[in-house]
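Lecture 7 notes. Example A: sequence first, then its structure tokens.
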Amino acid sequence: MRTLRPGLRVAFSGSFLEPRAELARRARRAGLVVEGTVTDATGLLVANDAGSGAAAVRVAVARGVPLLDEYSFTDLLAAGLPAPAHVPA
């Protein structure tokens, strides 16, 4: 995954250096939709330990959801998102 797009559904699993609430806030501010669990609609799981065997990681792998670590995720956030084509009413 090289870019993030507004409306992308993202979930978080495991421990992070930055507080999870802050990561979620930054994601929302960037136009991402933060989910509490991995669903069929999830487009990205942020997890620092993809080999942890955590349920969210297992579900994401089984469903083909891309995984990123915290560093890659925050790098993509810092790079910015393209402007949405339209803003829903």
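Example B, a different protein, same format:
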Amino acid sequence: MEFRHGLRTNEIESGEKTYLSAKTPLVVLGAAPINMGDMSCINQPILIQNITEATKYFGGVNKIEGFNISEVLYSAFQLFGVGPVLCINVLDPKKHSAVEVLTEVIVKNGMAKIEKVGIIPSELILKKGGTEESIEASTYEISFDSNGYLEIYFEDLTLTSIDGSIKVLNPTLITSQDIIGKVDINTLKKEGLELIDEIFTKYSVIPCAGIAPGYTHDNELRTIMNTKFQSINSGKWKSVIIADIPETIKYGEAIKWKKDNNAIDPEQLLYYGMGVLGNNILHLSTLVACELLRGNMENDGVPCDSPSNKNAKISKVVYKDEDGNYQDLNLDEKQAELLNENGINTAIQTPGGLVFWGNRTSAFQPGGTTEKKDIWIHSKRMIQFICNTIGINNQNEVDKKMTKTRAIAIRDNLNQWLAGLKSQEKILGGRVEFRAIDNPGENIAGGKFVWYIVHGDVPIGENLEFNVKNSSEFAIEIYEG
């Protein structure tokens, strides 16, 4: 033993741990109006926590027609007041754009407006109307209005018209393969859904839900997206996706579409109908994802509630007919119930307003699974939350000496966390055991240790019944007093 003379102190590990949960942003893949923000935001995860960041990267939070990421930012920050939102824009100007000619665009009081979305300012070529005389970029300024239209302000107030050309982003050129993405065989650069595995590495966050509004009707995309979100970072983190039935599907065809396209999965929430607010047409997947974020915020990050019967922030629900016109759905509770019975959720008008309606994942249907954790939205999200939280708080236990004291400390810390959730009425109860049956000697000698965890989530009051009886027992009160 080393000889020492004097006093000193040492820090020792207590084994006690306070459980923390990661931020859970909504993740959206698709097209963003990067022409209004940062043109470099292509195939990289961008975390947007407020309107300032949305403006910096994507030009703001107005709904720009044709760009599903702007729809999500508008819904999250303007309608629901929630965040963060993690955006993966796959729209690439090199592939998804076209050059168009400008002819006799009117200039009034030194200002011209080009009523087209997606114009790339750096690609503007302007000439004085009816001439070949170029207009230098230093002689005008540009901005975008709330619709995403380009406004040009000229120093020369004598201009009456301009000609030239513009390069315009075209999100309709995006295919499901662009969103599915790939890993470049030479550079190993990831695109599309392959970027999901970079989210935690870059931001230390775990997706609340994944959406790609306007694209998830594609079977291959929806299936691959489902797999990616339930096995993030090789299965370390888990999340659900939210998909839409195509807007052209009629009510009577919705159940058949679901079955024909095998849109059946415990980690998938499926919605029918499109929402309308003012002049905006919004995907229900967008709105429900925002409600999940709102519910998380209300419950301290714990996804213990259902989105059903919560305000949808829209005025009506529609579908698109054969002529391309939107028609009101006006589903009543009985009609919505038939969809719910088949694992399809929607939105309906109730005495409390227009609300989301349905508590079940797409795995729920007659003849389908009856496993509780796989058919209830809140149950699936709660078990994913518990798994994710255990993982994020015990990663540092890997490769430490697993003494009996450490194994018991891990058990006790987990039990304390579950007890906290119970006291907050976020679960009915839970317990953790470190059992001999799960840990035979050969496993322990091989470095494998197992903890057995069981919990009960708070049930959703989906079917409430009040039995009311008319009785004569109170008639005698007429003679009293």
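Note on Example B: The chain has a mean pLDDT of 95. The first helix runs from residue 51 to 58.
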